[in-house]
Amino acid sequence: MTEASSLPSSHPLLDGRTAQSAVVLAYQGVRPQTRPIWMMRQAGRSLPEYRALREGTAMLDSCLRPDMAAEITLQPVRRHHVDAAIYFSDIVIPLKLAGVDVDIVAGVGPVMGAPVRSLSDVLALPDLDPDSLQPITEAIGIIIGELGTTPLIGFAGAPFTLASYLVEGRPSREYLHTKALMRDDPSTWHALLAWTATITGEFLRAQAIAGASALQLFDSWAGALTLDEYLEFAAPHSRAVMDAVSDLPVARVHFGTRTEHLLVAMRDVGATVMGVDQLTTLERANELLGGTTPLQGNIDPELLTADWPELQAHVRAVLKSGLAAPAHVVNLGHGVPPGTDPDVLTRMVELVHEEG
């Protein structure tokens, strides 16, 4: 690995732009004067300006057009005044960049041209050409040029979740093919996850070097695993991703849904911050993690459509709960639902800034 100084001197963490930002400080375990907030899926379908910009452009194409990806990333920062931008991409973009046949099908989600279920399928997967990352680094250059002191968070999907998409061929609720491959052909399973870990590490590292001030690894489907399954079949490969960026001075946030039973194991693969979904209180998460790990979360996305007094009370409860942790970045327990009123999001950000 290269040294941390391999970040360019113009990087926002090194030239002073984001090093003292509220999100970066909180990720380091320092409580800033104002509690910071950003939201997963804050850039996207809830914003009319996003829908207008995306009209006529396929989802994956919008992620790979640097000007469009940059504009979409910046839209919620301008509108809501959140404390961080999250890079606009999709969990399957590294697969697409590597040459895997994948598309986003409306009403379904990511769909593979053909599932990957045998060793020959795995061995046929292509390496990620570093040149293919150029649209990503170009977009991040545009973004950080506009953000000023607001940090950008890079993101990627964890190996287990990416591999599950590859094996199932499309989103699944039961993960039948995934668990069958884990159980019946573990050597092929581990070969597949080693491949996904490699491309994910390269994808995240490129984002950090290009200007991201923190990174978040999403293991969206990990909650389907028992602790023993996670430790055997997923954790070693998530650790490989974290190792690929561990020499860089950026926070490493790890997040999954329905993962209370996995929080410690997910932290121990190399995360420095743990995201918490709405099913686990921040007090409980802090207790499980030994009181030493900064937390992120965990406003219930379903309450974004509730009456304001109910949402207001819930946000205040989350702020109080977050006091248990060494530091706390306010977020949702999952992503912004597409039908959310953006004015509610803006009002919620103002509430956090006023009371946090």
UniProtKB/TrEMBL annotation:
Q: List the GO biological process terms.
A: protoporphyrinogen IX biosynthetic process
Pfam families in the cross-refs: URO-D
Show the CDD domains listed in the entry.
Answer: URO-D
Matching Gene3D superfamilies, A to Z?
3.20.20.210
Question: Which segments constitute the Uroporphyrinogen decarboxylase (URO-D) domain?
Answer: 36-45, 153-169
Please report which protein family the annotation says this sequence is part of. Belongs to the uroporphyrinogen decarboxylase family.
Which SUPFAM superfamilies has this protein been placed in? UROD/MetE-like
Q: In which pathway does it act?
A: Porphyrin-containing compound metabolism; protoporphyrin-IX biosynthesis; coproporphyrinogen-III from 5-aminolevulinate: step 4/4
Q: What class of enzyme is it?
A: lyase
Q: What is one term from the GO cellular component aspect held by the record?
A: cytosol
Name the NCBIfam families on file.
hemE
Q: What is this protein called?
A: uroporphyrinogen decarboxylase
EC number(s) per UniProt? 4.1.1.37
> What's an example of a GO molecular-function annotation for this chain?
uroporphyrinogen decarboxylase activity
**What does the UniProt keyword field contain?**
Decarboxylase, Lyase, Porphyrin biosynthesis
